[in-house]
Predict the structure.
Amino acid sequence: MILMLADTLAKEAAGQNLLAIFFAAAITDNILLTRFLGMCSFLSISSQMRASIGLGLAVIFVTACTGAINAALYWFVLIPLERYGVPASSLQLILFIVVIAAFVQLLEMVIERVSLGLYFALGVFLPLITVNCAILGANLFLINKNLTVFEGFVYSAGAGAGWAVAIILMAGIRIRLKTARIPAALEGPGITLIICGIMALAFIGLSGLIK
């Protein structure tokens, strides 16, 4: 009875830990709003809602999958190689970029087959997910945090979801701004960056609730 109770409590604690990792990565440690990674596509695509949703979903998929794969490669391939004098840090960046590039290529082919309109709406920014620093940053951060493969998957999914939420929220705001009176000096990137800063403050303000 005691062992069963201890096992149940351990599972509940693990579940709570995974939820904390996910929501912290998505909100208080948002890869875009707190670390300002992936700003190029964020500023360019967020003027269109459909393209923002499509790119956001693509980033979630690529970030989550590559995070789990790269975590597994790091802990089960690169770390054992250190026994033979091969430092993991020397191959880590190259390996991570190759994995991300392969997934983006797969995703590009799928989107082209499923939704040609979305494919053309995303344009050059779809293949540029390969060098999206938000995805690569999430993959590197999960290693720095010493997360396991499954924890890395949860963290990467949270980071991708946070990026997607940020660009979708910005798309909604920018659509409303088209009918608003904005000073000429703040039109375009100016007002977008100001709103981005306000959104970042709002997300960081939840840090007392999500640790």
Remarks:
- Helices lie at 2-28, 39-45, 49-81, 88-114, 116-122, 133-144, 149-177, 189-204.
